[in-house]
Design a protein that fits this description.
alpha+beta, OB fold (Dihydrolipoamide Acetyltransferase, E2P), BirA Bifunctional Protein, domain 2, 2 domains, eight-stranded mixed β-sheet
Length: 447
């Protein structure tokens, strides 16, 4: 058997023998000719076969082989994986790429059942039940090509600036933030372990270790019984932490540069296909992103006619949409940093201004949805202990974390960002379920 050729390579090849492999997308079994649309991970190609429906008297072995091939094609089911050998021909009349392959032989790797469990109009839950079939669609496969480019561009940004990539534990002996959203499990019968909500404590440990600048793209877990379009119980978190900062502004500048670089890479590699399949243009954000203090943002939202019902002073989802709409109208920008959050609505490890009670932190909103919390961290151990107590946390349960700060830590800060939420907004999807390879939520543990 000749070497397999990817569909995307066919246009650059001369006419002649070729071997392609993939799955059957459609079969048009006409009386005199058969067409098979075969798709692989790079595209689709039309296979063609002049149909032989019966053997005449005196038929040759070649005639019998042609009949057998015709019958094999007639029996093909959607989703069957096969290898086709044949002759490549360039023909501008062929709508699918201007090439087709005249079939000489088929080698069926695995047949599919004739009745598929999902259709084009199936609901999201049904499609998630059969996610491996749903992902065969070109549009859905593109999501994960975009995700790959996005992650690669971010890693490139960091590595070119001498960041260290770390891999932090996902089993923890104590909570990283609060116990309210923790998955708890028995650990060898004698201890209790928790699935990590974030790598927060460990990326701060890297600052105490003198690493300076670190990043991680990895799983995180939240025992949050939420059924919104932007929450999951297991998700991929994009995290970075840097030393020797003056304020959260240093973190914000790094993040906006990171996102601009990542979006530019996506636009360059996938922009045309995203526009074709998702109907939207990838916009590379200009720098710097707008900044608005939280108190001012609340006033702007109120002036737009929306009263935020929350009593903790933060924006609710509709408030986020309203302030983002204002930013789009005023600055023509899809991103906005909301800054100056009160300590009452921030984690204990955010640095606070003792005079104002405000933290050196921000939330980053993208197209009306919060995607990031970033901050300068408190690095003075006695202040950390005091702030933990104010949040109702017992410093004794944070000893391993607090030990990092007892032997010196430079001023530092960082951010955490959900990958699926960023992808959802970038591609204009309505739910992170659409852009997660296998979604996990309160009622979904399979497939």
């Amino acid at each position: 058997m000749s070497e397999r050729v990817l569909v995307e390579q066919l246009q650059s090849l001369p006419d002649g023998p070729v071997t392609v492999s993939g799955w059957v997308e459609t079969v048009r079994d006409q009386k005199k000719v058969q067409f098979v649309i075969l798709r692989d991970e790079t595209g689709a190609v039309q296979l063609v076969n002049p149909a032989t429906r019966e053997l005449a008297e005196g038929a040759t072995a070649e005639d019998a082989a042609a009949l057998a091939l015709t019958e094999s094609i007639s029996a093909l089911t959607t989703g069957t994986f096969l290898t086709a050998t044949g002759v490549l021909k360039h023909d501008e009349r062929v709508k699918l790429g201007g090439v087709e392959v005249k079939i000489a032989g088929l080698d069926i790797a695995a047949s599919a059942l004739p009745e598929t469990p999902i259709a084009a109009d199936s609901g999201l839950d049904k499609r998630l039940d059969w996610r491996f079939l749903d992902l065969r669609q070109r549009r859905n496969a593109l999501i994960f090509r975009v995700q790959t480019t996005l992650e690669h561009a971010m890693r490139t940004y960091w590595i070119e600036r001498d960041y260290i990539e770390i891999h932090t534990p996902k089993l923890m002996s104590s909570p990283s933030e609060s116990r309210a959203e923790l998955f708890q499990l028995e650990y060898f019968g004698e201890q209790t372990a928790y699935l990590a909500q974030s790598p927060q404590h460990f990326k701060q440990m890297a600052q105490a270790a003198g690493f300076g600048k670190v990043f991680e793209i990895a799983d995180a877990f939240r025992a949050d019984p939420s059924f919104t379009s932007r929450h999951a119980t297991e998700f991929t978190s994009i995290d970075a932490e840097i030393s020797w900062i003056d304020s959260h502004e240093d973190v914000a500048r790094m993040q906006e540069e990171l996102l601009a670089a990542a979006f530019a890479a996506v636009k360059e590699k996938h922009g045309a296909e995203i526009e074709e399949l998702f109907g939207l243009e990838v916009t590379v954000p200009t720098l710097p992103f707008p900044r608005i203090p939280l108190a001012e943002a609340r006033e702007i939202v109120a002036a737009r006619g929306y009263e935020i019902p929350r009593t903790d002073g933060d924006l609710d989802p509709e408030g986020e949409r309203q302030i983002s709409a204002h930013v789009k109208e005023t600055f023509r920008h899809d991103f906005v940093f909301i800054t100056d959050y009160h300590a009452e609505i921030r984690p204990f490890y955010h640095m606070q201004d003792p005079e104002t009670g405000l933290t050196k932190s921000y939330d980053l909103l993208y197209r009306g949805t919060e995607i990031t919390t970033g901050a300068q961290r408190e690095h003075r151990v006695e202040v950390l202990e005091e702030q933990a107590r104010a949040k109702g946390l017992d410093p004794a349960g944070l000893e391993h974390y607090l030990d990092f700060f007892r032997y010196g830590v430079p001023p530092h800060g960082g951010f955490g960002m959900g990958l699926a939420r960023l992808l959802m907004l970038l591609l204009g999807e309505s739910s992170i379920r659409e852009v997660t390879f296998l979604f996990r939520g309160p009622t979904r543990l399979a497939p």
